[in-house]
Amino acid sequence: MSVRLDAISRRNAAGGLILDDVSLEIETGEFVALVGPSGAGKTSLLRVIAGLDAQSGGTVEIDGRDMSALPARARGLGFVFQNYALFGHLSVAANIAFGLRVLPRSLRPSRSEIASRVDELLDLMQLPGRGRDFPAQLSGGQRQRVALARALATRPPVLLLDEPFGALDPMVRKSIRTWLRDLHDKLGLTTILVTHDQQEALEIADRLAVMADGQLVQAGAPDLLEARPATSFVMDFLGDTVRIEGAVRGGVFEPEPAFALPVAVNVSDGPATLMIRPHDIDLVTGPAVLTPLATHGGFARYRVGDAVTVHVPVHVADRVPVTGAALDLGRGHLFRSGKSINTI
Amino acid sequence: MVSRTAAGHLPGFRLALASTLVWLGLIVAFPLAALIARPFAGGLHPFMHALFDPRLLAALRVSFGSAFVAAAIDLPLGLLLAWAVVRAKVPGHRLMDALVELPLALPTSVSGITLATLYGPRGWFGAPLAHLGLKVAFAPAGIVVALMFVGIPFVVRSIAPVLANAPVELEEAAQTLGASRSQTLWRVVLPPLLPAGLTAFGLAFARAVGEYGSVIFIAGNQPFRSEIAPLLVVIRLQEFDYAGGAAVGLILLLASLVILLALGALRRRFHHWIAA
Ligand SMILES: Nc1ncnc2c1ncn2[C@@H]1O[C@H](COP(=O)(O)OP(=O)(O)OP(=O)(O)O)[C@@H](O)[C@H]1O
Ligand SMILES: [Mg+2]
Questions:
Q1: How far is the CA of A195 from the centre of ligand 2 (A)?
Q2: b/e sequence A11-34, b meaning 16+ C-beta within 10 Å
Q3: Chain B residues close to A76, C-beta within 8 Å
Q4: Which residue from A50, A90, A137 is facing B176, i.e. has the nearest CB?
């Protein structure tokens, strides 16, 4: 089911805006990763969508229906908390069955139907036979899957996940995320996932939504964000960056370091920051000392001057000037006060 | 809980352990041993005689019965009080919080006399109750009232910290799963309080079985009806029937021990709930 957020805002008790005019449309079947620095408002937004917190303005529509007046229990969305929030006094099976058992009698499946649904979910979560265990007896990754199974038991069309893999080790995270994406496709879900992990966001999501200071900064497919990052955070989030301070004077960006070449740009005069991926930097002959570093992942790495690291694909490494170098920054992005002012 | 050996980590642990055990022996074990030995000092016969005294059996029934009822009523009342203090934060909850321990600090005779006055035929509570035909003071119900009064601090203090530390996400998770308020209360909030509730019940019950001072002022103390076992100990001693007095004490001790052990065993069944 589609999710439509229209001009959502929320104030905290002190009156400060923690969500500021957030509008976002998510199509049925889409997988969106919600990213942003700590304190950006990701959890706050997810809680408003789920109905756990009320917005101060704007509307939440699910499948075209305005949900704003409905409490969380009536919205029927799946929600997975960062710390799992499993019921410690209930067995794994009873945790999973919870959403079915609290249904009104007329809608509640029979005992045997609930039991077979629980078994089905345990299989789906690759936890067969663990139904009698208690949450305290499971590993972190297993608890995570139980929390997911519990949220999915009532077949919610929309799944909201708040950093669900935060506490897992990198290997487990990697396998669980591909598995989650498969699950999303198999069940035809619409999913919003909050994450801090760039790899995770890129690998799992159709689209990223980037937040900062309570605002939605940019939303789009990863390659769109890579091509036109709206803020320096987006640029930083998506990969390694080299950051060069400088200023624009008369249509030319003049970098501070002497070993970087000026770049012709089309923006007004003033201070600016250029950000560029290490592999987008071209090396030309120039004044700076070039120190070779270890080769890694198909890139020969060099330190230029005493700060900047450049990645050069191994197959063109023989074209690197050996006597001395300068940086050609023509493929970088220019930012002023953290906001994009131009792609060069 | 954590069961690693502490001996290797704490300097002076063995010495501390040894002196603790010695003190524990002097303070707890010796008097208990004396209590166990004393009834048999004059041979088995006087003890058996004291044991099957119908007045003693009646007093034990009154004592354990009222202690059970009082602890059972204290449990929901204490839960409500704990809720008001740590969760609802009702106006004046800080004062309420401080007042909870007052029954422990008050000399029990003062509580007894106060309660007897309040619930007496012309007291604030007693008069309207008498109007309804209910007699509390100087009747078995008075014993329960007095025992409830001394037991409730234990219930509040056992339950409040658990309630205060219960993660609010659990209730939110229940809501997102479609649970109504009452379903959340009964299925998510209350069950984890069960172990603490058992502890609370055990403490309130144990305190109530041994309570003497406050009860005798309000109970009426009629043999076979509203006479508690601790009072019978005093009466036997005044009659110079030391074996009889000690026999009552021993029965109280053993019965309480059995009940507390049972509660402990029940509580251990919930160990796998901890730390989810
Ligand atoms: N209950 C609250 N009362 C007041 N302010 C709050 C409350 N919850 C969150 N905030 C504020 O709202 C802002 C956004 O918080 P939120 O938890 O949504 O951030 P987040 O993006 O999820 O961060 P993180 O990545 O660290 O989880 C923060 O500045 C935070 O201080
Ligand atoms: Mg958060």
A1: 9
A2: eeeeeebbbbebebebeeebbbbb
A3: 178
A4: A50
User: Which residue spans within A163-306 are E strands per DSSP?
Assistant: 190-194, 207-212, 215-220, 242-249, 252-255, 263-264, 270-276, 282-288, 290-292, 299-304
Q: What is the CATH number of domain B46-275?
A: 1.10.3720.10
Cα-flanking dihedrals φ and ψ of residue A178, to 5°? -70, -35
User: Which chain B residues are closer than 8 Å to A150 by Cβ?
Assistant: 173, 177
CA distance A309 to A177: 31
Rounded Cα distance, A97 and A91, in Å = 10
Three-class secondary structure of residue A83 per DSSP = coil
Here the ipTM equals: 0.82
Nearest to B273 among A71, A134, A143 (CB): A134
Tokens of A267: 């923006």
Tens of pLDDT along chain B (276 residues)?
344 444 456 777 888 888 888 887 777 777 777 777 777 777 777 777 777 888 888 888 899 999 999 999 999 999 999 999 888 888 888 888 888 888 888 888 888 888 888 888 888 887 888 888 777 777 788 889 899 999 999 999 999 999 998 889 999 999 999 999 999 999 999 999 999 999 999 999 988 988 888 888 888 788 888 888 888 888 888 888 887 788 888 888 888 888 888 888 888 888 777 654
Q: Which amino acid is at A188?
A: G
Q: Whole-structure pTM over 0.90, yes or no?
A: no
Residue with tokens 């035909």: B133
> How many CB atoms within 10 Å of residue A37?
14
Q: How far apart are CA B111 and CA B125, in angstroms?
A: 15
Cα-Cα-Cα-Cα dihedral sign, residues A49, A52, A58, A63: positive
Q: Which two tokens stand for residue B195?
A: 């172990």
Which ligand has the nearest atom to the CA of A38? 1
Q: Please give the structure tokens belonging to residue B49.
A: 């005689």
Q: Which domains does chain A have, with CATH numbers?
A: 3-229 (3.40.50.300), 240-340 (no CATH)
Q: Using CA atoms, how far apart are residues B240 and A266, in angstroms rounded to an integer?
A: 110
C-alpha B188/C-alpha B118 separation (Å) is 39
Window 185-244 of B: residues touching A by CB (8 A cutoff) are 187-188, 191-192, 194
With a CB cutoff of 8 Å and minimum separation 6, the contacts of A328 are: A261, A281, A282, A283, A284
Give the number of other CB atoms < 10 A from CB of residue A281. 24
Q: Parse chain B into domains and list their residue ranges.
A: 46-275
